[in-house]
Please model this.
Amino acid sequence: MKRCCLLVGVVLFLSSCLLLETRRVQDLYVQSDYTEEIKHAELVLDSIAVQKGFDSQRLEANADYILRLLLARNTQKLHQPGKPLRIRALIKEEEFSRDFQIRNTVTVELSVFAPRSSEPVAIALFSENTRETIESYAYLHSIILRAVRHLTR
Model:
């Protein structure tokens, strides 16, 4: 009986994985001389923009708070922070329909700039197709956290 329940559980888990189908894209560019510095630098939020319909100002305020919190926590972990690097963040959500269901493509783009530099020294992209929306504070926190981790790994 236990083996039967276990088998049914495994089959249900695997079939749910097939139904949920979350697609993710991650990409990262870091100038070779900044590879280690990104991991140990103090990252400071320079600007943030959110692109989503009519409620972008509230979402921008939420994203700004979350990103500042995560960057402060990241800086606190550093033993000897290097020179500060500025981050510009762009968070986008676009809606599309698939199999008669509404889905969202959520993208977080992080560009890191050295002091007095107009060209980014690092660019991180984290994007996924999901049923979630950035209007959910918990989801917004989750995707920003994953993007920051992708940048600082």
